[in-house]
Amino acid sequence: MPNKPKPPPKGWLWSAEAADYLGVHVVTLRRWRRDGIGPKSRPHGLRRYRYKISELDAWMNGEHAEDESARAAA
Fold first, then answer.
1. Which of helix, strand or coil describes residue 49?
2. Which residue range or ranges hold the Helix-turn-helix domain (predicted)?
């Protein structure tokens, strides 16, 4: 039986879930992470990233003015 990935800690989302939550494609979220724009992410291992739900909400509510152009581009 293959191992299932562990769920993220309570209050966090993995990249794909965070992209759905924001209404963008996961590639857009990856590009924002690469370019240093968009919501803050934290690495979890070598290839996984997680996003704190409260920080996603704050970012969507415009509490990070430097990221306005990134949301407009999505």
1. strand
2. 15-62
